[in-house]
Amino acid sequence: MRNRTVRIAVLASLLTVASAVSAPPTHYRATRIPGIPEQGFNNVFPSDINNHGVIVGTLSRLPGFVPVRAFLWNGSGPTQDLGDLGVFEFAQAIAVNESDEVVGMAEVLEPRSSLGTALHGFYWKNGVMTDLPPLGNDLDSQALAITELGEVLVVSYDPSDRLRDRYYIWKNGHADQIGRLNAYPGGPSAFAGSMNDARQIVGSVINADGQERAFLWQGGQLIDLGLAPGDDFFSVANKITNSGLIIGQSWAFDANNGHGSRAQGVVWQGASFVRTIPPLAGDWASAAIGTNGTGTIVGYSGFPSSAIVSFGGAAINLNDLVPGNVPETHLYQGTDVNEAGQITVDGQFGCCGYRLDPQ
Questions:
Q1: Mean pLDDT (whole number) for 258-280
Q2: Contact, 123 vs 101, CB < 8 A?
Q3: 3-state helix vs strand vs coil in the chain, percent to 5
């Protein structure tokens, strides 16, 4: 009886997600996210958007070169440089919550490093950047996600072995150590990427059989999410929402397409597989990167890629939904989407980032 009840609850949850997905808009209006041109920062890489349109990400003068600066843009007016942790060369904003609290990583002075610097996670609020340092004798850390409760998931990188990284959850100066997220006792630590208000964490981890697969960690237990049906290579969970919707990517070996493998976006609800988001016609790989509470999902398809959106069904090329779009501003990756349906996208070669508003 209990198993039947669980199945009914899961089915009801999936139907709720499906019914909440909004109808596809006929097109989008693209607004270019301003850099800080007076300082030469014209290359914009947006990473996250909250429900009142605040966007965070990274600026550079030349793609792939320092200096790199973390930014916040509230949807109008100038773009704000979030500052750094004492070294100007590198700061990257990764996520923002509804309270406009931002997390990411920034360069710090570190005499133990051969380079003289290291990277630390940071928490930013109201103009103040707080250092989220590594644990013990580790050199580097990174803030991976922030919840609506202001809790920050931080990874501390083991300098001798990335497979022994440790995690902690930080809030208001207090850190709850999680340790290593292992799929089996003594196994390598997971690669986490997202956390929700219930402290559910997702990412990928190497299992006892040697295969790396997506996982859901909750209540001290690590749950194997497996691969999409028919896949046999690798999977990763990129994001989890407060409703337990999880999105990511699943791979399979493929000797027939010239690449040796193929990939598709994948959706789970809790630990249950929901559906895949196959690539656009003619492409061999796609990924689900950002999602909102109504089930709209964004990501990319192909290499070189095109930004895509899914409204509960097949992937749609976002370039086809922006009237007048030209090759110079090709949209190659959707990074996030908010409840209003606004999407952040990367433009070709990092030239520019855009906010897409549904029309």
A1: 97
A2: yes
A3: 10, 50, 40
